[in-house]
Amino acid sequence: MIQNLANLGNINTKEYWDDRFSSNNKKSWRxxxxxxxxxxxxxxxxxxxKMDADFDGTILDFGCALGDAIPIYKERYPKARxxxxxxxTAAIEICVRKFGDIATFMAKDADGIPAVDVIIMSNVLEHLxxxxxxxxxxxxxxxxxxxxxxxxxxxxLHEEHxxxxxxxxxxxxxxxxxxxxxxxxxxxxILKSYIYIELKNLIRPLFKVPLYKGGLNRQILFHIKSxx
Length: 228
Fold this sequence. Notes:
By secondary structure, the protein is of the alpha/beta class.
């Protein structure tokens, strides 16, 4: 299923994201723990990438935000070459300052990126109205494409999201998929997850509340091989 709500309005403009990444207000990326969220997603994604530890090709993080996933990918694949791209020039300027010694960064959209071996797109596609076109373009630029998105998000979607995805979304591209729960990478995050899900599920029936079957961050990772 692909649920596209783009015609209801989309706030994901370059101006919007430049402000979120560069400002210090209450809605900014950093004020809302965006860097930690990127790391959380990256730790789960890297467990599921189907490359050997000695992979020495090029990995591109598409929609890299402030670049915080790249050190995690690099730790797993020390021989690989890394690139990061985002359409927000404000984000890329910060990426260069933070991680310019381990990766090359560029402010590009899907059409502007170079050909690479692997592209990882973490929690980006749900923001993009023309997501099928983006996927097609990215597949023309790589051998393996990994797409992580929220799993089976229900209406009302998050205000920044315009699409929802399930296991069958990319069947037409023969995609493999893996649904998993991002509990966190720090002890307090993992503990909070168990308290919120398993522990509270013990008492929810007492109050006639449905069991919580999702997760704090329930994700699906698609792996699509380029047909070229």
